[in-house]
Specification:
Elements: E1 2-8, H1 16-30, E2 35-41, H2 43-46, H3 56-69, E3 77-80, H4 86-95, H5 100-104, H6 107-115, H7 122-137, E4 142-143, H8 150-166, E5 176-177, H9 207-215, H10 236-244, H11 248-259, H12 265-291, H13 294-323
Parallel strand pairs: 1-2, 2-3, 4-5
Helix pairs in contact: 3-12, 3-13, 4-7, 4-13, 7-8, 9-12, 10-12
The chain binds tryptophanyl-5'AMP (TYM).
Length: 332
């Protein structure tokens, strides 16, 4: 039985990068009978940069709605990170074996500390330790994430190894990325579609909204007129086609049409809008149903947290045993 773990921050709307890079894989992996799956709305990670505390609970709820609406298998456990205090507890133990040098090399730390120059807390620096704790608490072996999280995942593998080595144990397996890691670029052509860069298309946006953003989205910058052949391999629109356009023949036609200038970027985007709508219309419908029953959403999250707490308590007992931390039981 493989254990899957992944998380999403509850900041801003869930966007197509999150959906294609992560959530879509959460769904398929959760449905495999040989998998058990844990998915978390990682609110403690969101505390690492300035945020609006008043609006925060709504963000957590909306993220939960989006996660549940994508259609995870009902065996999957969905929960909010702060409901399971063992995440931050394990982060402390792992932090004590985490090399500072490696943390300083994290690309996301460099980017975010630059972005929030005036308020860089140590939480931003130690963020990857908490992420490792999320994964290792459930001894997860497979972690579906987008390309931007691979460095953090590599760090989690290192920490598992460091802990095991330091305490001569085999407690933690080394978590692996799901073999498909994808990067969706922003509508502005930027390296990454990202909530903080204001270049996103929301997953739950109505079709007109999606179309408006797609219409203005960057494609191959060399293709300044329709007559110039395009390069699908560097075009974000084509990348998205490869994910959501189900017919391989159509994807091939699009590829050939683009490279021979037989279809223009506008036509290509229209086809993408159709594919997106086919896939996301049921997700929007389920999200509307869930918003209409907030109690049901809270119940799912509450049940998820109970399951996780029981599991987390077992891991923490083993961690403390390995580390020789026995608290009052050490007293003569
Ligand atoms: P977050 O909230 O930024 O993003 C959630 C997931 O979406 C993926 N993603 C993308 N994939 C492709 N293209 C993009 N433009 C794009 N933008 C986001 C992310 O890679 C991620 O898989 N640190 C994590 C959350 C986290 C986590 C974990 C993930 C905390 N603990 C443990 C896995 C395991 C984050 O900030 O994701």
């Amino acid at each position: 039985m493989a254990t899957i773990f992944s998380g999403i921050q509850p900041t801003g709307e869930v966007h197509l990068g999150n959906y294609m890079g992560a959530l879509r894989h959460w769904v398929s992996l959760s449905k495999r009978p040989e998998h058990e799956a844990f998915f978390s709305i990682v609110d403690c990670h969101a505390f690492t940069v300035p945020y609006d505390a008043k609006a925060f609970p709504k963000g957590v709820f909306e993220t939960a709605v989006a996660v549940l609406a994508v259609g995870l298998d009902e065996r999957a456990t969905v929960f909010v990170q702060s409901d399971v205090p063992e995440h931050t507890e394990l982060a402390w133990y792992l932090g004590c074996v985490a090399p500072m040098g490696e943390l300083g090399r994290m690309t996301q730390f460099k980017e975010k500390s630059e972005q929030h120059k005036s308020s860089v807390g140590t939480g931003l620096f130690t963020y990857p330790i908490l992420m490792a704790a999320d994964i290792l608490l459930y001894k997860a072996t497979l972690v579906p994430v987008g390309h931007d999280q691979l460095q953090h995942l590599e760090f989690a593998r290192d920490l598992a190894r460091h802990f095991n080595h330091r305490f001569k144990t085999e407690l933690f397996p080394e978590p692996k990325p799901h073999h498909l890691t994808l990067r969706i670029r922003g509508t502005d052509g930027g390296e990454k579609m990202s909530k903080s860069r204001n270049n996103t298309i929301a997953m739950l946006e109505p079709p007109q909204g999606i179309w408006k953003k797609l219409k203005g989205a960057f494609t191959d910058p060399q293709r300044v007129t329709r007559e110039i052949p395009g390069r699908p391999e560097i075009c974000n629109i084509y990348t998205m086609h490869t994910v959501v356009t189900p017919e391989p023949a159509l994807t091939e036609t699009i590829h050939a049409g683009c490279t021979t200038a037989n279809i223009g970027c506008g036509d290509c985007k229209k086809l993408l809008a159709e594919s997106l709508d086919r896939e996301l219309a049921p997700v929007r419908e389920r999200a509307a149903e869930l918003r209409a029953q907030p109690k049901r959403v809270l119940e799912v999250l509450g049940d998820g947290a109970s399951t996780c707490r029981a599991r987390a308590a077992q891991t923490m007992a083993a961690v403390k045993e390995a580390a020789g931390v026995r608290g009052a039981r050490s007293a003569p």
